[in-house]
Amino acid sequence: MTTESVLAIGTFVIAFAGLMEIVGVTFQTDQMDRAAQAAARALALDSSILHDDAKRKERACDAIIDELDKDPAFDCWDKWPDSKIQPNVNPSELPATLALNQDPAGSSGEMVFVRIGWSRDLMSFEQSSTSVSMVAMGLARAEP
């Protein structure tokens, strides 16, 4: 009786830990997706800064900081160096824009695409240096 109880409780604890890991990863991924969408939306609402890389990055980072409730001194581009802003995307250029290492040449469209390259720990409850690369994407139509 005691052995069966120990095995049953152990199984439930392991199953619960796995479930919590899935929930945590889903929550973290959703947060980053919302941050990328907020950055794209913020850039789309102010098309006057789309041609200035420094202002674009600053505005996108401000939106990400607001969405993730980070410290105002948080540097998005230092923390996530694989991140990228692609302004002036045409719908026909989306397949090339979504490819990780390609930029459509001579873009002159009306959409703003934001990609945040980030990483998370392989297992949140495990002490290891292994991380998994993730990508969050946001797309918004630029307002005139």
Give an overview of the whole structure.
This protein has 144 residues and is of the alpha+beta class. It has one domain. 47% of the residues lie in helices and 19% in strands. It has helices spanning 2-44, 53-68, 76-79, 94-98; strands at 84-89, 111-121, 131-141. Strands 1-2-3 form a three-stranded antiparallel sheet. Helix 1 (2-44) runs antiparallel to helix 2.
Helix content estimate: 40-55%
Spatial shape: elongated
H/E element order: HHHEHEE
Q: Count of DSSP E strands?
A: 3
Low-confidence parts lasting 5 or more residues at pLDDT below 50? none
Q: What's the Cα radius of gyration? A: 20 Å
Taken as a percent bin, the fraction of beta residues is 15-25%
- Looking across the biggest beta sheet, what order are the strands in? 1-2-3
SSE class: alpha+beta
